[in-house]
Amino acid sequence: MLFVQKYGGTSLADAERIRKAARRAAGLARQGNQVVVVVSAQGDTTDLLIEKAAQVNRRGAAREMDAYLAAGEQMAAGLMAMAIGAMGYPAVSLTGWQAGIDTDGVHGNARILNVDTGRIRRELEAGKVVVVAGFQGRDPEGDITTLGRGGSDTTAVALAGFLHADKCQIFTDVDGVYDRDPRLYPDAVRFGRISYEAMLKLIENGAQVLHDRSVELARQFGIGVEVLSAFTGEPGTLVGDSE
Ligand code: ADP
Ligand code: ASP
Ligand code: MG
């Protein structure tokens, strides 16, 4: 089976959490699966980078902001590949552009147009876990783009779609999708399954648990997306229309 697993910032916040995710990916690979891991920047790195940029230029050029912000995910990807390597499993990290993620040129909110999967395929066939930096791609000029806040989800779904993955799993800091933010409403109810349409409605109403474009892409590809806890790995919510 080919798995695409995405880990959000909180799920990678420190070395122990990175090792936990690395263990899960390496375990799957050891069982004979092909595994692509998509990572967000660690913790609140992206917010910190935005603050730092503002200290030198409150209205920095969008192209330069992308060049700067993309570094957060690159660092996480390198760390994750090293963590998997430390477990005795070969892994390789790729930036969005190395991974063949082509976007339009809208800096700060770029849309994925295509994924040239050649490099990822070669690395998987060489028996490696492939770690891809989320949230980023390259535009037709070859410049670095970012996909908008929360965009690593969309990286994962695009990779799952273009690679024809068997599973697309979004690991996060809650154990699924609820009818309301479970952090604010302790009586929120978790969905076992939710349709693309209903998920998009939730997002429209402010649920940032998934990037809206990731759900639109999943619907286009017709792939189910599992949202589950990075801490327990227990089944969470399946976003999709049918089995
Ligand atoms: P990640 O860093 O893993 O991408 P996000 O912070 O982007 O995580 O998304 C997860 C957060 O989404 C949760 O911590 C939760 O507070 C929030 N959230 C808001 N609305 C919902 C909802 N309806 N169901 C689940 N989580 C929600
Ligand atoms: N690190 C980026 C952000 O904070 C992308 C992501 O987390 O998906 O928005
Ligand atoms: Mg997110």
Write the layout of secondary structure elements.
Blueprint: E1 2-7, H1 15-30, E2 34-39, H2 45-56, H3 62-86, E3 91-94, E4 101-103, E5 112-115, H4 118-125, E6 129-133, E7 136-138, E8 144-146, H5 152-163, E9 167-172, E10 193-194, H6 196-204, H7 212-221, E11 225-229, E12 237-239
- Percent strand equals 15-25%
Derived structural class: alpha/beta
CATH architecture of the domain at 2-171: 3-Layer(aba) Sandwich
CATH topology of the domain at 2-171: Carbamate kinase
Describe the protein in words.
The chain is of the alpha/beta class. It has a domain at 2-171: Acetylglutamate kinase-like (Carbamate kinase), CATH 3.40.1160. It is 38% helix and 21% strand. It has an eight-stranded mixed sheet with strand order 3-6-2-1-9-11-12-10, sandwiched between helices. It has a two-stranded antiparallel ribbon with strand order 4-5. The longest helix has 25 residues, at 62-86. The two termini are 17 Å apart. Bound molecules: adenosine-5'-diphosphate, aspartic acid (ASP) and magnesium ion.
Which features does this protein show?
binds adenosine-5'-diphosphate; two-stranded antiparallel sheet; 7 helices; binds aspartic acid; 243 residues; eight-stranded mixed sheet; alpha/beta; Carbamate kinase; globular; 38% helix; binds magnesium ion; 12 strands
Short description:
With 243 residues, the chain is an alpha/beta fold.
